Each structure stands twice: as C-alpha cells, then as structure tokens.
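Repro case for the chain-ordering regression, as requested:
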Amino acid sequence: MALLVDAPKRKSKVIPLEQLREWVPSGSTVGIGGVHSQNAPMAAVREVIRAGTTGLTIIPTPSAGIAVDMLVGAGAVSTLHVSYVGLEFLGMAPNFKRAAEEGTIDIIEGDEAWIVYGMRAGAGDLPFMPMPPMYEGTDLPSVNPLLKRTLDPHTGREVYTIPPLKPDVCLIHAQVCDIYGNTVIRGLRRFEHVMAKASATVVVTAERVVDGPLGEDPRVVNIASPQVDAVIEVPYGAHPTASPGDYLLDEDHLRLYAERSRAGDFDGYRAEFIDKPQDHIAYLEAIGLRRLLELRHR
Amino acid sequence: MALLVDAPKRKSKVIPLEQLREWVPSGSTVGIGGVHSQNAPMAAVREVIRAGTTGLTIIPTPSAGIAVDMLVGAGAVSTLHVSYVGLEFLGMAPNFKRAAEEGTIDIIEGDEAWIVYGMRAGAGDLPFMPMPPMYEGTDLPSVNPLLKRTLDPHTGREVYTIPPLKPDVCLIHAQVCDIYGNTVIRGLRRFEHVMAKASATVVVTAERVVDGPLGEDPRVVNIASPQVDAVIEVPYGAHPTASPGDYLLDEDHLRLYAERSRAGDFDGYRAEFIDKPQDHIAYLEAIGLRRLLELRHR
Amino acid sequence: MTATEQADVSYAEMMAIVLARSFVDGEFGAIGAASQIPYAALRLATLTRAPNICWLSGGSGGINPVVGELPASSSDYRNALTAEAIYSLEDVVDWETSSRLDFACLGGMQIDQYGNTNMARLTTPDGRFVRGPGTVGLVFMSTFKKVYLYTERHTTRTLVAKVDFISGAGHLSGGDSRFERLMRRATGPVLLVTPMAVFDFPPPERRARLVSVHPGHTVDEVLANMSFVPRMDGDVPVTPPPTDTELAVLREVVDPRGVLRRPR
Amino acid sequence: MTATEQADVSYAEMMAIVLARSFVDGEFGAIGAASQIPYAALRLATLTRAPNICWLSGGSGGINPVVGELPASSSDYRNALTAEAIYSLEDVVDWETSSRLDFACLGGMQIDQYGNTNMARLTTPDGRFVRGPGTVGLVFMSTFKKVYLYTERHTTRTLVAKVDFISGAGHLSGGDSRFERLMRRATGPVLLVTPMAVFDFPPPERRARLVSVHPGHTVDEVLANMSFVPRMDGDVPVTPPPTDTELAVLREVVDPRGVLRRPR
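-- result from build under test --
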C-alpha cells in the first residue's frame, strides 16, 4: 500500500551462532530444551563450550541427556538441577555421572515436579508452588534444602513447596521459526513454552528460519515471538540428537560419545568434534554428509 | 486382522442430550467453557434449565456471558464465581445484574487470576496458589474471604493465595470430537483443557461427533479422551453464541434475549425458547432454518 | 487537513489516534474484550510507527492479528485465523503476573483521580447498589508494567474522585502509596484517554493531570463532565489533530467500514 | 503351545505379557522413557483385552500411539505422529499430582521389599558412591493410584532389602506407614515383574510376596538373585505361560521386528 511504503519495518531477531556467547555469559543460569535424544540444542551447546564458558547453572527439561552431559564434560557447569540426566536406552550420562561422583559439580537433587512446577512458578513469577502430599514419602527433602514447607491456609497443614526456577537464558531447538521468533517444535509434549516464560531471555536454534509467513496453523506455534529474543539458523543443529521430521538421532555417534567419555577420553572427543571444527558447518563436515543424509527420516 | 476379530472394542462415550441431567444434578458445582459469545455450551445450558436443576455453583471461564446469565435467570444458580459476566459489546448481563443487586445469588468476587490460577491449582490438585503482590493493591480481599494469606518460606513475606477450584462437572462446547472424547475447540485461547483437568467429570457438546479418526493434527486436540466422560452431538449447540468456523454469533437473538430480560420478561423468553421446545431440534426450529443458515460464516 | 475533515473525526477515531501515538515500539501489550478503540490504535501504531509491538487480542488467543476490518469483539474468530500464533489463557496470565506485559489498555465503570478502576460494584449517590460485570483482568493493573486507561464515557459518573471499589490498582492514594504495596516494576497508569481529553499521572503526586483537550472541546466542558478537578499546569493545549497519514491508514486499512465513525 | 515355542519366549516378552494381563480395562496410565516392555504390554492389552485403557507414551507427548513396531524410545517421533492427541508436560504433571493417572509402569536402580525405588544415589557395599540418573517421575509414586514395578535386572544389587534413597515411595516401611504420609487414594505398588518372577504387595504387611515364577526358572534361582527374602504363601506356582493369542499378537502386531527377543 502506497500509504505505508515509508513505514518502519519490523526487526529481525536473527543472529549468527557465533554471537550466542554474548547471550550465555559465564556464571549464568541456563535452561535447556529437548526431551531425551530429541531436539537438544546441540549446536548451541557446542558453541557455548567453544567459547570457554564456565560456572553455568543448568536447569534442563526433566528428561535431559547429551546436551547437559557434554556441558558437564567440558567443565562449563558448576551447578545442575537433576531430574533425569542420562542417555536413555544407551545408559548413564558418563560425564555427569563422573562429575557427580567426584563432587566436581553441585547437584540440586530434583525430579520431574521440581522442574515442571518450578518453571511453572517461574513462568508466572509466583513466589513458590505448594505440593500435595508427595515429597513426604521420599528422601528428596533430606538432600534438597530448597524444598521448604509452609502452611496451607485452608487446612492449617504443612505442605512442601517448590521454588520458582528462572533461567537467565533458555536454549531451545526447533524445527522452524520465523525471523521474529514464532517457533514450531515438533515431536514433543509441549514444555518449552513454559521454560521460555520462566526465562529472562530465550534463544531459539532452528533447522529453518523463514523470512515470511511460517505457513503453519497458528495453533501449533509453540513459542510466540514476544517470548523470543534471538533466533539462529542451524541445519542439523540438534545432531547427534533427533530433529523430529528432519532427521533421526545418530545412535552410532551417541554411542561413540558415550564410549569415549566412559573411557575417560571426553577431551579427545571434544578436540575432534567441538574445538577443531571452528564453526557449525565444520562440525557437520566432521560428521560427514553421507552420514547426515542417512539420518533423514525414511 | 483375523487374530483380533474377537477382541473387545473400545466403548463410545456418546450420550443423548436428555441424559445430561444425570451429569448435572441440583447442587453441583459446574464449570462452563467458552469466551464471551464464542463456544458457550448453550444446548447443554438449556437442557439443564429444562430439567429444573437448582442450587448450582457456577465457575465459568473468566469471560462469561449468556450461558451464565441464562442459568441465573432460570433460578438454577445459588453461587457464582465472578470474573466477568456480561454480554461484551451488547452490555451488562441482565439476569446476573438483577440477581446480584437483589441478593438472590451468592457472589464470590473473583477476577481472571482467581479463575485461571484457581483452576490451575484444581488441575494439579495443589493445595492453593500463591500470588505475587497483586491483590494487595485491590479491594478484592475485603469482599472475598477465600483470598487467604500464607508465608512465602523463602522470604518470610505474607502472600495472598487462591484456593483450588474443582468443579464436579465441566460443560464444554467444541467444534468436533470423536466418540471417545478427543476434542477440538476452534477460535479460542486454550483454557478448557485446564478446566477439564480441574473437574471431576467433563461433558463435551460438539457440532460434530465422529466415529473414526478425527482427521486433525493431534497437536490441535485441546482435550484428550481420558479427560472426557461423555460426549453429546448438538449441531448449532452454541447458538446464539458462535461456533468458530461453523456459524457466527446471532446478534439479533442476543439482543432479543437481553432486551426481554432487561424488561423483566426472562420468563417469557424461557417459555418460548427453552421450555416450549422440548428438545434441541425443536429449539432450532423455533430459531428457524433460514436464520441458522444466515449465521454460517461467509 | 481541512477544517471539514477535522470536524469529521469521531471521538473514537481521535482516541485511537492518541493511543497509537503513545505506544512505545518493541513493547508487548494486551487489550480486553470489547476493545475496538485500542484494537484500532494497535493496528494503526504497528502499521505506521511501531512495527515491533506485539499484542494480544483478548479472548481470541491471537497475537498480532491482521483482520481487514475492525471486529466488534477481540474474541472474533478472524483474530485467531489471522494471528501469528495462538496463546493460551495460562500464557496470558503468566505474562500478566510476571510483568512480562509492558502495557495493557483498560477501562472501568469508574476511574478515579489516581487511576484506580472499578468494574465490580458501586453505590449510586442515591444509595442504590449497582453490580458491574466484574474485575476480570483489571486485577493485573498491579502487575502490567504500565497501563493506558481509556473510557468512552467522559461523565461525572465514570470519572470520580475515588472509586467505590478498587478492581484495578492505579496509584491508590497517590504519591508512592502504590509502591508500598506493589512491585516497582509495575508502574501503574500512565495515561487516561477520553472522548474529550488526555490525562497523565505525573509524580510526585501521581494524580490525573489534564494534558490536552481534543479539538472541538474546551477545558470547561472537560471539567464540567467529571467529578474531580484534575491537576492543570498552565494553559492546557489542544490535542494535536490527526495527521493525514494517521487518518488515511486508520480509515483505509484499519477500519475501512468506518466502525469508529458510527454513533456509539 | 509347544515346548519349543515356550522355550523361545524371551524374558522381555514374558514380562510384557504378565503386565498386559494385569492392567485393568478403562484405566489411564503412563510409562517412562526407555520402556519397551510396558510399551509392548500396553499395546498388547489394548489390542486383546482392555481396549479402553488410555496411556501416555513418555516424552513423545502422544496418547495411545499405534506405531507398527516397538520404538527404542517412548520419545520416538512416531509416537507423536500416530497419537490420538498430544498432551503437554504440564498435563502429565497435573494428572500425576492430582492422582488422575490410575497407574504407571516404573522401575529403579534399586527396588526394595516394600516397593520403594531409587534412581538417584546409592553407596555400594564397598563404600563407593554411585550416582544414578535421577528421580524424574518416580516422585509421583506418591500420587499414582497404583504402580506396576518392573525391572530387567533380577539381581541382588537391584532387589534390595532397603533402598539407599527413596526416590519413589512404595509402602515405605510397610503396613500402613505409607498412608501416614501420603493420600489413601494413591495405593502404591501393586506388582513387581522381573525376568524371573512376579511379586505383589499384599496387606497388612505390604511386603513383596512371590506370586509366581516364570516358566524355566525356579524359586531357588529367584531367591538367590535378590537381597531379601520375599513372603511366600505355600507353594509358589509357575507364571501361566503365554497363550497362543498373546504371543501371536505380541509378535505379529506389537513387535514384528522381535525387539523383545533380542539379547538385551
């Protein structure tokens, strides 16, 4: 419309992967999306490691895997909220296990309710979240002093509470988003939107970033633009985990990672797959185009 | 598969509208879906009135309209949780206004947070929901004694809390559902799934009930089958409110309702449109096919 | 703009234009239900000067809808169909309590000199109890970072010295009284727009100040139709009339059916 | 079934069949992440005898998925693609804390004689601290209406007298001790299925009772491989072997690739 030709245009939120380090300074509290070996923001994790980041507090989704394990292996983590950290059907998360057993990271002993209700309280900036009788049957309160009690004003009964969890920045991998941050995540039960609400800033890595309409039903947009601060396009950005609809998890690579880590050679893995490839494309070259194409859904 | 021909089959949850009265006995606490004049479960409301139901406690969505007003007009309501009850751009809800001013119903003076966080607590059966500083600036606590305070165990500060809201039954109108209760609601911000979780039982009225695949992306199913207890097929079941994608709100009829109610003739309206038409089809005949077809989206 | 065109500007158009000028680019806001004026203002602002505003269209669940006309209700299905994304009601309430929403456009059946609002209940001068529709989202005036108040009724009944019931917290009894009870990040009402005038709430008193009077109205008329005397700093200017661009975009793009020009 | 076919039944198939028989039609349940055995059990049960069960396939968000084979992970995308509906993580947790979920199939790196489970941390007999993956959903053993426990490791390390750390509340110290702390509607573990045997937790003690031993195993073998002596009421019967239908549906429909028959 001629009337509007001079009107200012909406700004893109796209940044290069290399700028991620400015969003995740050492010492920050970082939320991490994904479920098991699906949709982990691995390109972002590798970049955070490459930047030499340290002292992070990590609050992952309740079912965390290699993304968290790799950050722990690289020495980037000082404190970790644990619901589940493992490689699911591939066994324990080796670097997490070692660091926890050697006491080189602080563990906040949580569970699924801790993460979900903690983030839920964070999302609304509620002071805390009171629970029905649940922790009373477990040993969690004996090792997690943040599970404090208060009074239910209706019954006078003491109830356990979960504190609000509020990451400084949340890293989320998605299949597609637009340049303003409207984000579609496939293949998971929705939770990343709650983490986004709980987080001060949100960075989305996506397989595809479109400058124009998403072409999706607005009902399936998981995270809306006002919630997203920066957007990074990284094809195969979840590798070696899966990007549902794009590619499967790379079981061979996950096993290689786990075996080298268990054998005490995480540093060798890191040199080969994180530090030597100076950017994301170089990493993908190290994996090899043949392998990447094999992982596409058949 | 020959192997499975004798296997028992999954049960349908379809019931006739006339059976609704068994699900909504006098004295029960009833959640009601819909936003303003969209997706109100009007056929269900008329059936509840026809059954002579009384003494209901109503907890509607935060933006309630004619469904609640009609139940109040018919004398079915003893207690009403108020966030907003009105006819939006058509003015005040006349029967609600009169009953509140004459003191013939008990009002629980709420607001959007009361309903949403109350249902959220109900959904997880949490003992209560603590709020950030908010009610401290309002007069709501002076008229709503259920806004009780407790201690934030992290700061020692007193905080207001919202109690869990837990309807006995929730009435929800939808565009389409399957015979097991998988339900798709169009045109609204999602909240009915939270109400459903908070409610002991859920009855869905739908424009279409399909015996077979919904044919929808499972991501847009608002309420999943385990959450739904009964399903009723009622074409034009939201009339005179809108069923998004099916028909618009009937502004003329809403005005007629409002004017007759304001003029003190709700009983005349009720006789003509609720009691005289002995079932839903007879109601639609009273509205007239010509009018119903005019309301289809153009 | 000619005098004729100027005279032709409806109060609803004028209010939408005043609001559109006030919004800050890049902010995240919300409007209520029957909200044609702020709806039009947001469309006008995002089209002309503040393209990075994101806003929530009430009950529809739609963010940044682009309906080709002005719907009677922000719950209109077309807002959902043309939205960038659909939010849930839990999303809205989370954004509200956490003060993620930079602003909201809100009204009330009573608005007082400190910007407190009432939608719940009042007693008329002759002692009659009047039930309002309810507090709904006004409770979040405690948590929105700022609030644009507006009313289509510039009357002594609506603009009162003190609301009978505080549904939405304005500046309470003025000064810093609000911040003794609520968080500083939620700064309260910043503007009040009526069919006749614009007010703000400057510190330290945070009491309504008459900022400007719309073209065609006088200060005396403004004052005669309200129940308190606002602060006035010297001569009160005229609200700058609509620019050609504002009026053209409003009438050609935002409200081509002229809904805001009809008798209301 | 012939002796050959019988011998051919893997322990994972046997466990899936035992679980499938145990489920109650019409109930609403959940499984965890790497859960091929309960996943297969639920598919088998809904296909053959309990078509009104609804179940949540872990991280995929899918309800009642119908993937044509047995995925390695319940988070597998095909579970979402073939589901009736996608739930959110908040939905699951709400259903968990509110005891809407009638049952869950859960395990642990330690399971004790009262059905308490541990996935968080333990100390080996030689004093070494061992980190587990974490408590995750085991915390909801406090609120699931009932719990089917299972483990693929029938060993003295897994089946212990007392867990080192209670991640998931079983019957605590037995008797009514659970109900002194938790709600009665959540009744705790009802079954424990291992590669060798089936246990239940009958009142009043609510201590594990050896119900049956799978074909091919003996009571002595069962007892030699666990760190506590379960209750035994007289002669312990053999777990009824798979019926032809069970085995056919499991192998032809649920697990056509024979995942449950591979070495694990």
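Ordering looks correct now. The interface with chain D takes residues 1, 3-4, 7-11, 123-126, 178, 180, 182, 193, 197, 214, 218-219, 221, 223-226 of chain B (CB under 8 Å).
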